[in-house]
Amino acid sequence: MNTHILVLETSTQVCGVALLSALPDEPSRLLIREHEGSGEHAERILPLVESLLAEANVSRADLSAIAFGQGPGGFTGLRVACGVTQGLAYALNLPVIAVSSLLAVAATAQAVADQIEVVALDARMGEVYVAAYRHRVDKNAWETVREPMLLDAEFLALWIEQLTAQLEAPVTVRLSGDALTAFPGLAAPLAELPGLQLGEAGKPTVEGVAALAMLALQQGETIAPEQAMPLYVRDKVAFTTAERQLGQGGNPSAPWRPAETNLS
């Protein structure tokens, strides 16, 4: 049986579209179309889809599922990918695969059994999106150790320190994502963490989402189109007028704070 997964990833400034095909007795094939320009995702994504399907000689009716990077990431981009996914999936009666954009970064690196993969991405406003994962070789699956959340960039090293302290056994930790590139001042506190490995300074890609999408489809981890939603971890980007009148200025801060024991 032929399997064709249409994959959409627009959580960054890059609009990525891919077709991942698995055919009997043949290596899987991944075709990609990309366009850079965060303000152009809505107008570019469907033409990219049509161009890709035409190149692959695959019709919409041949598709097996639609996958999308659900975030966290840019609000507008996430809505575009989710909206297009829902529309196509409804029209074609297809299952949907929602993939964490942070996990897509972790999954692009060579998996190391039971190693903690921390992904931290620039969230602007002095903050990062962060999550932690572990690859279970025996299950050929990714385990979420810490769900995606918003974190003040200055607390990233402390967050990793407290994460490792809370785990049951000593583990190695690898940090990936573009947080260190966006916030060079993090280099010094991160360097003080014993055993911390630095991975690729990458961002979510449509290739990473595609690899996780095929694994999810094989394991039956799909959802109905109406259940597809972007993953927002920043609940608020600005204070209301009333809040500003009460003296609240700047940007609403991320809620996580380090434990008191680590502040000495």
Show the helix and strand layout:
Layout: E1 3-9, E2 14-22, E3 29-36, H1 41-56, E4 65-71, H2 75-92, E5 96-100, H3 101-107, E6 116-122, E7 127-136, E8 141-152, H4 156-166, E9 173-176, H5 179-182, H6 187-191, E10 196-198, H7 206-218, H8 241-245
Parallel strand pairs: 1-4, 4-5, 6-9, 9-10
Antiparallel strand pairs: 1-2, 2-3, 6-7, 7-8
Helix pairs in contact: 1-2, 3-7
Written description of the protein model:
By secondary structure, the chain is an alpha/beta fold. The chain has 2 domains: 3-101 and 204-227, Nucleotidyltransferase, domain 5, CATH 3.30.420.40; 102-202 and 256-262, 2-Layer Sandwich (Nucleotidyltransferase, domain 5), CATH 3.30.420.40. The protein has helices at residues 41-56, 75-92, 101-107, 156-166, 179-182, 187-191, 206-218, 241-245; strands at 3-9, 14-22, 29-36, 65-71, 96-100, 116-122, 127-136, 141-152, 173-176, 196-198. A 5-stranded mixed beta sheet has the order 3-2-1-4-5, sandwiched between helices. A 5-stranded mixed beta sheet has the order 8-7-6-9-10, with helices on both faces. Strand 4 (65-71), helix 2 (75-92) and strand 5 form a beta-alpha-beta unit. Helix 3 (101-107) crosses helix 7 (206-218). The longest helix is centred in the N-terminal third of the chain and has 18 residues, at 75-92. It is globular.
Search tags:
30% helix; alpha/beta; Nucleotidyltransferase, domain 5; 264 residues; five-stranded mixed β-sheet
How would you concisely characterize the structure shown here?
The protein is α/β, with parallel strands linked by helices. It folds into two domains: 3-101 and 204-227, ATPase, nucleotide binding domain (Nucleotidyltransferase, domain 5, 2-Layer Sandwich); 102-202 and 256-262, ATPase, nucleotide binding domain (Nucleotidyltransferase, domain 5, 2-Layer Sandwich), CATH 3.30.420. It has helices at residues 41-56, 75-92, 101-107, 156-166, 179-182, 187-191, 206-218, 241-245, and strands spanning 3-9, 14-22, 29-36, 65-71, 96-100, 116-122, 127-136, 141-152, 173-176, 196-198.
